[in-house]
Amino acid sequence: MPKTSEQSAASGRRFDTVLIANRGEIAARVQRACRELGLKTVAICSEADRQAPYIKTADHFLCIGPSAAGRSYLNQDAILLAARLTGAGAIHPGYGFLSENAAFADAIEKAGLTFIGPTAASIATMGDKIAAKRAMMAAGVPCVPGPDSALPDEPEAIERIALEIGYPVIVKASGGGGGRGMRVVLKADQLHEAIALTREEARKAFGSPALYMEKFLEHPRHIEIQVLCDDHGNAVWLGHRDCSMQRRHQKVVEEAPAPGIAPEIIQPVGMACVQACRQIGYRGVGTFEFLYEDGAFYFIEMNTRLQVEHPVTELSSGVDIVQAQIKAAQGDVLDLAQSDITCEGHSFECRINAEDPDTFLPSAGVVTHLTLPQGPGIRVDTHIHPGYRVSPYYDSLIAKLIVHAPTRAKAMARMCEALAGTEIEGIATNIPFLRALFQDHAFARGETDIHYLEHWLKLRR
Length: 461
Ligand code: ADP
Fold this sequence. Notes:
It catalyses: N(6)-biotinyl-L-lysyl-[protein] + hydrogencarbonate + ATP = N(6)-carboxybiotinyl-L-lysyl-[protein] + ADP + phosphate + H(+). The chain is α+β, with helices and mostly antiparallel strands. It has helices at 5-8, 24-36, 53-57, 76-86, 102-110, 120-127, 129-138, 155-165, 191-206, 263-280, 310-317, 321-329, 408-420, 431-437, 441-445, 452-460, and strands at residues 17-20, 40-46, 60-65, 90-92, 114-115, 169-173, 182-185, 211-215, 221-229, 235-247, 250-256, 284-293, 296-303, 346-353, 365-366, 369-371, 378-382, 389-390, 397-405, 423-425.
């Protein structure tokens, strides 16, 4: 039975100081959420990030290692030591780096601290794509056709599975991530070579040769559902996002809600996600990613962390997802029922990257001039300022431009204005490319699939 607030008092894991184990815009975003909740913050940084603005505004800060992420932001021992030295009671992992590392979550809890995220067991299950698919099928979440078990070794047995699914199929590494460790097989004569190559890649890159196979969907959209859960069996979904605008499996623009999907179609999928969360004892925030084709949803994976694109959902639902995540980690009872959640209007997010707008090669250097857009319905999440040095060591995301308006068309117009009002000099950015994309007619009509952006880019060359 879900608990009420009176019953929760005993189960809370209160903390008053949060160490933010990340950098860049998300470190600034989490710090803001902590402050609003009356919590103290600890910033950590690498040598390259000593001048970051969130370092100056934290209650404590520690430089934990050299610029290379492997020796700083991925150094679990250094982060745990920093927490001990500063008296932090909890660690927020942000996204990327150690955010989906079950061993890190476990080490934090074993050190008597709170990991602001789900349990290590939930992270481990969802990090193993076969285990995740099995859990989702058991919970009634619709999945891509194909078995929820690892491929056998015998060639004939593999051929039978492919025939049962029907070509084209996709072979995926169970431990894969970041768009790596998968191969599309169009015809039977390509099957065994594809399996051998993917298995080898999986063994080397992910430390496990386990593969699985499913139907390859040819023109899907990427639709995802944001969930929010407490530790007492309460869970809600905060609406859906469309993240189909991708280049090399990297999201470029996200929006909420997904255009052209009727509430009665998405509703049962959202409720199945909520049900799955209860079934696996999920805590905190998470995202169920689906492919959507011909009116049907197919689960592909669950992200057990805060996502880059969470602000589009914040603007349409009015829920501060980061604060809600922190409160869930403290053992608070969720103060939202599903009926309280009414998503209104439309929001877009553009990822502003320090990269060449034509070649997409990363661009490092000093920001010599910065003008950010202002006005109603415009939000900018960033850590950069004039004089800021963009480091070549990390991801090229330097800002997120987020807009909200009553309709999709108005939100698009607002994003055009916001992009026109953004000036970043000293480094190259993808802003010219985003401005052109927001003039595109097919994008304006909505419902473009995950291949659309790559085709659009080819046509412009
Ligand atoms: P990762 O963990 O590496 O991000 P995902 O399982 O989320 O892997 O898949 C990444 C991308 O690969 C998807 O967004 C989609 O573009 C493509 N993809 C994955 N599974 C399928 C499938 N069954 N059919 C078509 N495309 C797929």
